[in-house]
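Worked example 2:
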Amino acid sequence: MKTQKTVMSKIAQISKEELSSEKVELALVDDIKSRMKQISQLEKIAEEVVKAANNVNSALRKVADDAKYYNKYKKSVFSDLRSASNELYKDIQKVEANAKELGIKANSIPEIDLANKTRENANDTLSLLNRVNLEFDI
C-alpha cells in the first residue's frame, strides 16, 4: 500500500510538472503571437512611412526642377521682354510720327491700338516678374 501511495504521489507530481511545463509553453506561444501581431502592425506603418517619403522626394524633385527652370530663364526672359517692349514703343512712335506727317490720325490705325495693348500687357508681365521671386535658391 505504501508503494502504491508513493507511486501515486510520483504520478501526481509528474502530472503537475507536465501541466506546469505546458502552461509555460502556452504562455510563450501567446507571447510569440502577440509579437507577430505587433510586427505586422509596425510593418503596415513602415509601408506608409516609405510611401510618404517617396511622395516627399517626388515633390522635392518637382520643386527643384521648377526652381532650376526659374533660375535659368527669369533674367533672360525679363531682359528680352523689356527690350522687345521698348522696341515696340519705338516702333509705335515712328508709325505715329509718320502718320502725323501724312495727316493721318494714329488712332485710326488698328495695329497701333493693338500694339499699345500688347506693350501694356508686356509691362504688366515685367512688373509681375519683378514682384515674384523664389524664397530660396537651388
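The first helix runs from residue 2 to 101. The CA atoms of residues 29 and 35 lie 10 Å apart.
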